[in-house]
Write a structure and sequence with these properties.
Layout: E1 5-15, E2 23-28, E3 49-52, H1 62-66, E4 72-75, E5 78-81, H2 91-95, E6 101-104, E7 106-109, H3 110-118, H4 121-127, E8 130-135, H5 142-154, E9 159-163, H6 169-176, E10 181-185, H7 191-198, H8 203-212, E11 219-226, H9 234-247, E12 251-258, H10 264-269, H11 284-295, E13 301-303
Parallel strand pairs: 2-8, 8-9, 9-10, 10-11, 11-12, 12-13
Antiparallel strand pairs: 1-2, 1-7, 3-6, 4-5
Helix pairs in contact: 3-5, 5-6
This protein binds iron/sulfur cluster (2 copies).
């Protein structure tokens, strides 16, 4: 097997989310979009990143002492990390016994991931589970995903991906060859607004979903994040469901994912500002209204993933 490499920021075992049964979730690092509501900011860049959890820090100051670049200092009794000086050498992580500092992002190869997956084969078999690639974005690593998923299929392990779908079809097609389930995001139907909110137009994405929906060997779940004031207008909701209803094909259901604030503290740990500070989560009533509107188009609509 060709030993192709990729960058992952986490591997979670025994998950009961993101696909049926018990699953191994593999979070790829790097994303071509920059959605302002992203709840996994640690997944956006392909380079490793240093995080700091102040609540775990016991102020032993070992990281200050060991840093060869003087990138950590104390200001107003708080530890401050200077990203411009930091060379990501990882020395501060090695000495942090409290695990307040972590390096996110490791280079892995196909063999390594296959070994991790194979450890849980029994759980997949007994629960109807499998492997899910998320992130970040699996579409950044077509050769890697293709090689790992082909190996999984040779061992009868089902594979799912969660994706924003932003890639050329030739790359997407390569990924799809050994995938059983695709969880595909639609974030906004207007190309201009999509670019403002997510960094790129949605044209490639919608074209890919159109082509994907014609594949009868793959199950598709469309996921729509509901972000108050940004993509939940009547017009956008109706354009979204009209588009999905026009495809049908292999689309099993639409999942509405209400905006949440779980990502907020992650921005802080990465030393970044949370772009949606103060935004309220959508009410149950609002989510139910959207669900009812969408159900009018004859599709199976679910709140939550
Ligand atoms: S080494 Fe870890 S626990 Fe000690 S001061 Fe640094 S971050 Fe805090
Ligand atoms: S990763 Fe290296 S350079 Fe960066 S803060 Fe830690 S010890 Fe210093």
């Amino acid at each position: 097997m060709k030993n192709i490499e990729a960058i992952v920021f986490d591997i979670q075992k025994f998950s009961v989310h993101d696909g049926p049964g018990i699953r191994t979730l593999i979070f790829m690092k790097g994303c071509p979009l920059t959605c302002i509501w992203c709840s996994n900011p640690e997944s956006q860049s392909t380079t490793p990143e240093l995080t700091y959890m102040g609540d775990k820090c016991i102020r032993c100051n070992k990281c200050l002492e060991v840093c060869p670049n003087h990138a950590i200092s104390v200001e107003e009794n708080r530890l401050v990390h200077n990203k411009d000086l930091c060379q990501l050498c990882g020395k501060c992580v090695e000495v942090c016994y409290a695990e307040a500092r972590k390096m996110l992002g490791m280079v892995v190869d196909v063999n390594y991931i296959i070994k991790e997956i194979e450890k849980d084969t029994l759980f997949y078999r007994n629960s109807g589970g499998g492997v899910t690639f998320g992130g970040g974005e699996p579409v950044l690593y077509p050769d890697f995903i293709s090689a790992v998923s082909a190996e999984c299929h040779s061992e009868d392990i089902p594979v799912a991906i969660e994706t924003c779908g932003f890639t050329f079809w030739r790359n997407f097609k390569k990924i799809l060859d050994n995938i059983d389930l695709v969880m595909f995001d639609i974030k906004h139907m207007d190309p201009k607004t999509h670019k403002e909110l997510c960094g790129h137009s949605n044209q490639l994405i919608l074209n890919n979903l159109k082509r994907l929906s014609q594949r009868n060997d793959i199950e598709v779940v469309v996921r729509v994040p509901i972000i108050p004031g940004l993509n939940d207008s009547k017009d956008n909701i109706s354009n979204t469901i009209k588009f999905v209803a026009s495809l049908r094909g292999n689309i099993k259901r639409v999942e509405l994912l209400p905006y949440h604030k779980f990502g907020e503290s992650k921005y802080e740990r990465l030393g970044r500002k949370y772009p949606l500070k103060g935004l309220k989560i959508p009410s149950d009533e609002h989510m139910q209204n959207i669900k009812r509107t969408m159900e009018g188009y004859g599709l199976n609509i679910q709140i939550g993933g």
